[in-house]
UniProtKB/TrEMBL annotation:
Residues 46-216 form the Oxidoreductase molybdopterin-binding domain. Its cofactor is Mo-molybdopterin. Gene3D superfamilies: 2.60.40.650, Oxidoreductase, molybdopterin-binding domain. It comes from Neobacillus rhizosphaerae. Keywords: Metal-binding, Molybdenum, Oxidoreductase. SUPFAM superfamilies: E set domains, Oxidoreductase molybdopterin-binding domain. InterPro entries: Ig_E-set, MoCF_OxRdtse_dimer, Mopterin_OxRdtase_euk, OxRdtase_Mopterin-bd_dom, OxRdtase_Mopterin-bd_sf. Residues 242-352 form the Moybdenum cofactor oxidoreductase dimerisation domain. The keyword Iron does not apply. This is Sulfite oxidase.
């Protein structure tokens, strides 16, 4: 019996980087739409998934506030909402490309996704409780927990109050027009546009306002840039997404026929917007301007393309670099740090024309 044509259709799957806990990235060449399907949204976890239900779920806001409140799921989802479209990128994206190598999940380019998140602005929730004078940071605690350095801890992250009060920072309950999936933070997830994904705390349970810097293990140990291999001198925190880009097509080491082909990919940045993307076909000797397929918008990636006629029996090194509205561009060499965060060096692939 001959297999049907349907059997030969390519069905994309996440690429496993870890199972306990689950960490999976997206094959970058499948990110075609501005809204990444939930099934292809990358998964980043420190601990096992918590098991939660709406019926018994409450969100507590406490600390340096005028009125401590505990809100049920239905109370929060009935509040005035807004939808934020933003990319989400793991700070360890492209860790596999550091030289010398660093420890950690060996993400290539696919620890990134983009989606629509519906929720209530954090500033709206804090207007209910009131914030005391002198408040400096907001701490967000998730329901995920486990053992770290021999101690049982819960995942917690802090935000400076100035960033936390940005109206685009929301407590979300919907992802791509559906309730957030259990693997992406159900029932509530903090969404912090412009910052790496570690700030967007999943399974959000408690919000705590404090009048001093937060120093939890995922704030001052993990998610810190350590420029030196064996000392902490010169360290500083991981915050906003660094300007970056990636080539989606062709694939690295692909063999193509002579003739015209399109080079396509994505570019993004944390603050500002992408203003231009440049392509080199000769290992950086010369650069050409790519076409931006979309109108660049803050917190979103932009698609780009460049068409070229490739000659027979030639090898090509293709590089891409992006520029943004606040003067940032990608470096030729990544800023090495021992935890492997923020790799945004110029992306490159090699192809062969037969």
């Amino acid at each position: 019996m001959n297999p049907s044509n349907h059997d030969f259709l390519v069905k994309p799957h996440l690429i496993t980087r870890g199972l306990r806990p689950e960490n999976q990235e997206t094959p970058i060449h499948f990110l075609e739409a501005n809204e990444t399907p939930i099934s292809l949204t990358y998964r980043r976890n420190h601990f096992p998934y918590p098991l939660l239900s709406i019926q018994s779920y409450f969100l507590t806001i406490k600390g340096s506030v005028k009125n401590r409140v505990t809100l049920h799921y239905n109370q929060i989802t009935s509040m005035p909402s807004r939808t934020v479209t933003t990319l989400m990128e793991c700070s360890g994206n492209k860790r596999a490309y550091f030289d010398p190598k660093v420890f950690g999940e060996q993400w290539t380019e696919g620890a990134i996704s983009q989606g629509n998140w519906k929720g209530v602005s954090l500033s709206t929730l804090l207007s209910i409780t009131g914030v005391n004078n002198g408040a400096r940071e907001i701490v967000f605690q998730g329901e995920d927990s486990g053992v770290k350095n021999g101690q049982h801890v819960q995942y917690e992250r802090g935000l400076p109050i100035e960033k936390a009060l940005d109206p685009n920072v929301i407590v979300a309950w919907e992802h791509n027009q559906k309730p957030i999936s259990p693997k992406h933070g159900f029932p509530f997830r903090l969404i912090v546009p412009g910052w790496y994904g570690m700030a967007s705390v999943k399974w959000l349970k408690t919000i705590r306002v404090i009048d001093h810097p937060f120093s939890g293990p995922f704030q001052t140990d993990d998610y810190v840039y350590y420029p030196h291999k064996e000392q902490n001198k010169g360290s500083f925190p991981v915050t906003t997404n660094r300007i970056n880009s990636v080539i989606q097509q062709p694939l690295d080491r692909q063999i193509l026929k002579p003739g015209q082909h399109q080079i396509t990919g994505l570019a993004w940045t944390g603050e500002g917007i992408i203003t231009s993307v440049e392509i080199s076909l000769d290992n950086g000797a010369t650069w050409k301007t790519a076409i931006l397929q979309d109108t660049p918008q803050k917190y979103r990636w932009v698609k780009w393309s460049y068409s070229h006629v490739f000659e027979k029996n030639q090898d090509y090194n293709i590089k891409v670099r992006a520029f943004d509205s606040i003067g940032q561009s990608q470096p030729d060499k990544a800023f090495w740090n021992r935890n492997g965060y923020g790799n945004n060096e110029v992306s490159q692939i090699n192809i062969q024309i037969e």
